Amino acid sequence: MSRAYSGSGQSPPAPPGPEGENRRSLDLFDLIEMVWSQRVIILVVFLLLFAFGASASILMLDRSYEARARLLVLLDDEDLTPGAAGSGDGFILEQVLQSEAEILNSETVRRRALDVIGPAGVLPAGGTEAQALRALRQSFSVERSPNASVLIPVVEGDDPARSEQTLNAIIDAYIAYRQVVLTGDGASGISERRVQADTAHGIALAALDQFLQENDITDYEADREAAIARVSALQTQLLTAQSEAQAASSAASALQARIAGMPETIELYVESSAENQLAELRLERERLLARYLETAPAVVAINREIAELEEFITGGGVAGLGNTRTGVNEVRSALVEEQMRQEVRASSQTTLAATLRRQWRAAQQEVQRLRDLAPEYRRLAQDVAATETAATGLATQQAEAEARQSLAPGSADAVRIVERAYAPPEGSSLKKLGIAASFVFAAGAAMLLGLLRGYWINHVSPHASGRPLPRDQAAAEAVSHEPVPMPSQVAGIPVLIRMPQRGAALGRR
Q1: What was the pLDDT predicted at 402?
Q2: Quick one: average pLDDT of 20-26?
Q3: Pairwise pLDDT comparison (318 vs 156), residue with the higher score
Q4: What is the 3-state secondary structure (H, E, C) of 137-175?
Q5: What rounded mean pLDDT belongs to the chain?
Q6: CB 153 within 8 A of CB 68
């Protein structure tokens, strides 16, 4: 809640109505009253949050051990080796120490140290080289003593012995690598390393050749690409053969359905004995007319026979009688021949599709076999490439080392180990800080929750139910005059402690 002040230093009266009667500003005593009324809730919330935070701090924050060492960098006017790590002609202490710190904190030094102690010397449960390098990168740092040519390498870990071992390995690797950086390995050392690299390259190449011979591979990449291309070509041919077989089979089925409705033979012509008899009767009638008149009984009788026979033939009496001559249906024969041709084509394409399917599956198996061999091939190929690169680099370094005049022995011995790695056995822990932070957070959260709950119960809930506020508003209503609102009354100013106003005190006098 807030209260605005007028020019006379008195607070304006609350507006009329139920809200004006219950509304007033909060002071420090109200806050104390709300906290005291919610003391049980505050205490319970505080204990729960503090117990949870303290338990998490005790269980999750482990003790760490910090191993430290001290290295002294000598600056000798006759020995310019430390200055070789700096820049410019005038080598000052800041430049030299910064250069030495960069060498000490380099990734190469960490890798050399890791080659000596292994990943198990850095990580408690072991791990890969990448994980060990990341752990070294996070736990190792270099500090410098002010106004002194001393470098302080630091390694932080969960075990004092492991921290000391790691830091000593880094210091030894730094001393050795510093010699290589400032004076070089020398041609003899590089020559031996080159021989080793050539031997390793020969072993890797022989292993790769043996792998190719055992798996009947001439060139892995070329064979793999050829197998993939063969799979694609066979798949295309298989789809074509299946399509043609289906088309031929459909055509044969259509022809078969058409042939089923056609007769195998057809009638060429039909000979009937009644027609022959009719012709004979007509011939006999002509012979009788040659001897007799048309009114002769013999002619009349034969005419009657001819008329009856014609009527009998016209009425269909001779249907199905007589001799019928049939022949082969040539249309059906042509369709049958085409059907057989389509069936043969469908059968041949089906056989071709089955053969192509077997070849396609064999080609797929070959591609899968090459894919299964890919990890081993890549490993061997990477070994060959890495050893070849190493051998080439060493050959270049050997040529440069032979052409470069080496410095005198011991010219880079300008760093002294003042103190080897030492980790205090008691270590350090953030548990106390975590418990203190848990206490502050629990107290603040519990207090805030108590204030919010007390404010709701004492100043919000009574308004909603129509009950009067616990505190009396008679003092605020005792003001007899209403002050003129000032511009400062637009935004309320929160009040924690109500102080007597000078103008009001004078008025009461």
Answers
A1: 67
A2: 55
A3: 156
A4: HHHEEEEECCCCCEEEEEEEECCHHHHHHHHHHHHHHHH
A5: 74
A6: yes
Residues sharing a CB contact under 8 Å with residue 288, sequence separation 6 or more, in sequence order: 296, 298, 299, 302
**Rounded alpha-carbon distances, angstroms, from residue 111 to 133, 189, 190:** 7, 19, 19
The set of residues, in sequence order, having a beta carbon less than 8 Å from that of 469 and lying 6+ positions away, is 22, 24, 458, 459, 462
What is the DSSP track for 184-253?
Answer: ---HHHHHHHHHHHHHHHHHHHHHHHHHHHHTT-S-HHHHHHHHHHHHHHHHHHHHHHHHHHHHHHHHHH
Q: How far is CA 163 from the centre of its chain?
A: 36
pLDDT at 130 > cutoff 60:
yes
User: Alpha-carbon distance 319 to 379, whole Å?
Assistant: 96
Q: Where are the alpha helices (DSSP H) in 260-329?
A: 273-291, 297-314
> In the structure, what pLDDT confidence band is assigned to residue 229 with cuts at 50, 70 and 90?
very high
Pairing of strands 265-271, 415-422: unpaired
Q: Which of 218, 196, 198, 222 is nearest to 208 (CA)?
A: 218
Average pLDDT of the segment spanning 348-365: 90
Predicted confidence (pLDDT) at residue 367 exceeds the cutoff of 70: yes
Burial degree of 167 (CB within 10 A; 0-12, 13-18, 19+): buried
Task: Please report the pLDDT score of residue 41 as a whole number.
Answer: 87
How far is residue 122's CA from residue 156's CA, in Å, rounded to a whole number? 11
Q: Which residue has the higher pLDDT, 22 or 264?
A: 264
Structure confidence at residue 497 (pLDDT):
44
d(CA 338, CA 331): 11
Lowest mean pLDDT among 39-48, 261-270, 403-412, 471-480: 471-480
Alpha-carbon span 142 to 133, nearest angstrom: 16
Can you tell me the distance from the alpha carbon of 323 to that of 339, in angstroms, rounded to the nearest whole number? 34
Contact (CB, 8 A) for 36 and 450: no
CA torsion sign for 432, 438, 443, 444 is positive
Distance, in Å, from the CA atom of 356 to the CA atom of 39, rounded to the nearest integer, reads 87
What string of DSSP letters covers 42-96? HHHHHHHHHHHHHHHHHHH---BEEEEEEEEEP--SS--HHHHTS-SSS--HHHH
Higher pLDDT among residues 10 and 383, named by residue: 383
Residue 473 DSSP one-character state: -
User: Cβ atoms within 10 A of the Cβ of 252, count?
Assistant: 20
* Residue 458 DSSP code: I
Angle subtended at Cα 335 by Cα 331 and Cα 336, rounded to the nearest 5 degrees: 115
Residues 6+ apart with CB under 8 A from 116: 169, 172, 173
Contact criterion met (CB below 8 Å) for 318 and 312: yes
Q: Which of 192, 345, 340, 329 is nearest to 264 (CA)?
A: 329
